Amino acid sequence: MQGSPLIACPECDLLQREPALQQGGAAHCARCGILLFRSTPGDTLDRALAWTLGAIALYLIANSLPIAALEVRGQHTETTLLGAVMALRQQGMWPVATLVFVTTILAPGVELAAMAYMLLPLHWNRVPRHLGAAFRVAPMAHEWGLVDVFMLGIAVSLIKLGDLATVIPGLALWSFGGLIFMLTAAGSAFDSRDLWNRVKA
Ligand SMILES: [Zn+2]
Questions:
Q1: N or C: fewer beta carbons within 10 Å in the chain?
Q2: How many Å lie between the centroid of ligand 1 and the Cα of residue 8?
Q3: What local confidence, expressed as pLDDT, does residue 129 receive?
Q4: Global pTM?
């Protein structure tokens, strides 16, 4: 493998030459056997970009439409996610309000912005100026994003409320479901090795 680029194992730091892979093949560390990278067919960055753009659309819908409407004895109330955060804060539950805001609005928003910031210019073969920063911020924001946990909490509360009130799930609730799916798809389509190869080229 003379001439092929060197790669360091993230687990044991062994420096080795990148093997040429067949489509769908995977390269493992020669010493500890950990997966180094996979050969993915097609343009992984464009695929990640498509999922990211879809996720951004759902993120906007999920945050602007009501997550649920409640009807108790003819009284109709509905709220958006941000409205729920505000209500929590007004009731003095600001730690919970902050937690919900950070994990379901801020973190996914930052993650999507960082992904779009990296992938959109690269699509037109431009290297964004703060690529390194966005590359570090995206996974960090991902760690803080707990949209799926939040969805589970909402689902449980809505089912419990079903005895007391008529619960009408809002469009935002379904958008949150789609958002979880698209965020995961964007994350798994995103190949950091492809990203740096594109920058070098
Ligand atoms: Zn290793």
A1: C
A2: 8
A3: 92
A4: 0.78
